[in-house]
Amino acid sequence: MHPALHSWREELPSILVRLLAYLSGLLVLSVAAAQIFQSASATRATTGARPEWIEIERPFPAFALSIPEANDVPSSYAIRRHAEGSGRKDILTLGEPNSVSPYLQVEIYRPGGEISRFAGPKATITAAADPLGPVALRRAEEPLASKFGPLAIVAFETSKGEARHCLGFVRDYDDPRLQLSGWFCQGGADFIERSTLACALERLTLLSAGSEPKVGALFAQAELNRSFCGQHDPILASTPKYKLLWKALANRPEPRRIGR
After folding, report:
1. What is the pLDDT of residue 254?
2. 24 and 91 inside one domain
3. Looking at the whole model, is its pTM more than 0.90?
4. 103 & 194 share domain
5. In terms of domains, do 76 and 91 share one?
6. What is the extent of the structural domain holding 165?
7. With b meaning 16 or more CB within 10 Å and e meaning fewer, what string describes 64-98?
8. Residue 235 confidence (pLDDT) above 80
9. Co-location of 81 and 205 in the same domain
10. In b/e form, how buried is each residue of 118-156, taking b as 16+ CB within 10 angstroms?
11. 67-97: per-residue pLDDT in tens?
12. pLDDT the model gives residue 38
């Protein structure tokens, strides 16, 4: 027998052993990879996807909303940051979110790269007020005059929690890029009056513009446009109280300021 053939036959078993060991190793790695992938998928399913908006734990208020007649009414201030686009939402609330008593929410949205343009008034209110289940949305033909300029008004009713009538409002600005929106709700048969909504927004002020001087200029101009709830002379007539809203608190002298 040729020596080369004899050498090949002797090495064949060891080659087969190494091949089987190699295939076994691949099989073990494949099983391990499948288990890791399944474990990661289960973890994502358990924990859920990363939220689009992240709430800041200790928000430093940039805005304030003073309603003297609602001194004991629950209030909150939240700041949310977009997970990817760096946009910021400052959300101020006054009242119980699920109650027939008046409830006011104001949102100041300064977008980053997460959107290219603002949504329309109806879409904005529908998305933001989702926890209330807004139904029967009706956009008013005439905008509401306010110190921030004309506001688009969207009336709606709630389908979740207590039955309430609400007035949603939206105002977009191009420079600075900012959106002012929110809603004012109350139980009963009547909607919040438009003038009452405008009067409540008169109390929305800026505490700090930070590194955005144009936001400071916008709020400074708004103060110049302030009508003091229809009474232009603040010396002769101070801002009237909202007796139609928080009747039980109408005579309280000390203001409640969200953001302080």
Report:
1. 46
2. no
3. no
4. yes
5. yes
6. 53-258
7. bbbbbbbeebebebebbebeeeebbbbbbbbbeee
8. no
9. yes
10. bbebbebbbebbeebebeebebbeebbebbbeebbbbbb
11. 877 778 899 999 999 999 999 999 999 998 8
12. 60
Total tally of structural domains belonging to the chain: 2
In sign, the C-alpha dihedral spanning 89, 92, 95, 101 is negative
> Over 60: is that where the pLDDT of 34 sits?
no
Same structural domain, 25 and 114: no
Q: Above 60 in pLDDT, residue 238?
A: no
Q: How confident is the model at residue 50 (pLDDT cuts 50, 70, 90)?
A: confident
- 86 and 13 together in one domain: no
Clarify whether residues 152 and 250 are in a common domain: yes
E-only strand ranges, the chain: 53-55, 63-66, 75-82, 88-94, 103-110, 134-139, 152-158, 165-173, 178-186, 204-206, 257-258
68 Cβ neighbours under 8 A, 6+ residues apart: 241, 252, 253, 254, 255, 256
